[in-house]
Design a protein that fits this description.
Layout lengths: L1 H23 L7 E5 L5 E5 L2 H4 L3 E6 L7 H17 L2 E6 L4 H13 L4 E4 L4 H13 L3 E5 L10 E5 L1 H16 L5 E7 L5 H14 L5 E8 L5 H14 L6 E4 L2 H13 L15 H9 L5 E3 L2 H16 L8 E5 L4 E8 L2 E3 L5 H5 L5 H4 L4 H8 L2
Parallel strand pairs: 3-4, 3-5, 5-6, 6-7, 7-13, 8-9, 8-10
Antiparallel strand pairs: 1-2, 11-14, 12-13
Helix pairs in contact: 1-11, 3-11, 4-5, 6-7, 8-9
Length: 376
């Protein structure tokens, strides 16, 4: 796989970057600190531009609502990667507001960041941020979500079409070869290009499976889990309850689906997909109310971002392993596309072994016996 080749190349790049930092930082003592506020915004720093040779790197996360991953996994993984490389950085969270993200970006640019990475809330606002950054000589990175019509120098993510394919195959497998099955799609936000790719990948598997009929499909604005409850309940009512499987784009939406299935005494009878391998998602898999999730290592993705950011700050071309098509911008964006993993009860230890979640947290309380039974 290209990801293996990429990892080998990254080892060489990381060694070179750290060697540069050591030479340029001779005689300087690097210190590291980080801070965060209750709102989820915050920043951290390690060393100095003179010590690292990489200037200052800014990262803007999108929110705390669409997924718990941004603050619980991505932020600490990014902090660890930047500290390891000895570069100065700031990480803040837009809290779901495109205006806030623009304000944060303006502040970071004014504060002298040399590389700015964003997880856009929508492509239009993301592209505007990148255009302004470029006009100020700041390199930009799309992190996790591709900004359509944007100008990012590189895109760091998982292969999101493959994510959808894994979800689609997971649902087909969980349906167990039923001769006939009604399926509905509960997609992510219509402003998130990843949600489009997830759905496309899932459709490529499910649409060609004999016996499966898609009886409903809705997108959930802003990945809002509360709104997803209402949307799925309406879909369930419209189908008169005749739903045999649900494609839910992530674990948060899966939880919303499961709440309605529980209300109708059908939780555990209707397979539901997910994504992100969250604590709740893994516990739902153990309980049998969710049939699978998709794991995307935050450590791996954050490490790839740190490598690309350091390369750009040092005037180098980042090591990539693919390109991603931006039809709106009419270009192929140099990309690092990592490999996601399908997670079921049988291979849940993959997440624990990588440090993606704590076994103690997932297997707490009523789930302890379930973990033991599953061999976790």
């Amino acid at each position: 796989m290209p990801a293996t080749t990429y990892s080998e190349a990254i080892f060489v790049n990381r060694t070179s970057a750290l060697l540069v930092a050591t030479v340029l930082g001779a005689g300087l003592t690097l210190s590291a600190c980080s801070s965060s506020s209750d709102s989820g915004s915050g920043d951290g720093s390690s060393g100095s531009a003179e010590a690292s040779g990489a200037g200052k790197i800014g990262v803007i996360l999108p929110d705390t609502k669409s997924s718990v991953r941004w603050e619980s996994k991505d932020r600490p993984a990014l902090e660890a990667a930047f500290k390891e490389a000895g570069v100065e950085y700031t990480i803040q969270n837009a809290e779901g507001s495109a205006d806030t993200m623009t304000t944060i970006a303006d502040g970071m640019i004014a504060d002298g960041v040399t590389v700015l990475a964003i997880v856009n809330l929508d492509s239009d606002s993301g592209a505007a941020i990148q255009q302004k950054a470029a006009s100020q000589g700041v390199k930009t990175i799309d992190y996790d979500r591709l900004t359509l019509g944007g100008s990012a120098d590189v895109y760091i993510s998982f292969d999101n079409t493959v994510v959808g394919e894994l979800q689609g195959q997971g649902l087909v497998d969980c349906l167990g070869g039923r001769p006939a099955a009604n399926v509905v799609f509960l997609n992510g936000s219509p402003t998130d290009n990843n949600a489009t790719l997830f759905s496309s990948g899932a459709h490529s598997v499910i649409d060609g499976t004999p016996g499966i009929t898609i009886v409903g499909e809705q997108a959930v604005p802003d990945w809002d889990n509360d709104e997803a409850v209402t949307i799925f309940e309406q879909m369930y009512t419209a189908a008169d309850g005749r739903i045999d499987g649900v494609y839910a784009a992530n674990d948060g939406l899966a939880g919303s689906v499961i709440s309605i299935l529980e209300k109708n005494q059908r939780a555990g009878q209707v397979p539901v997909t997910g994504q992100d391998a969250t604590v709740e998602g893994l516990q739902n898999i153990l309980a049998g109310t969710q049939c699978m999730s998709v794991y995307k290592s935050a450590t791996e993705e954050a490490g790839a971002l740190a490598e690309a950011a350091i390369a750009l700050a040092n005037g180098q071309e980042p090591e990539t392993n693919n390109t991603s098509r931006d039809d709106q911008g009419g270009r192929d964006v140099p990309s690092v596309l990592l490999t996601p993993k399908s997670i079921t009860k049988e291979n849940m230890n993959v997440v624990f072994d990588d440090g993606g979640q704590s076994k103690e947290e997932v297997c707490a309380g009523q789930f302890a016996a379930m973990c033991t039974e599953a061999g976790v």
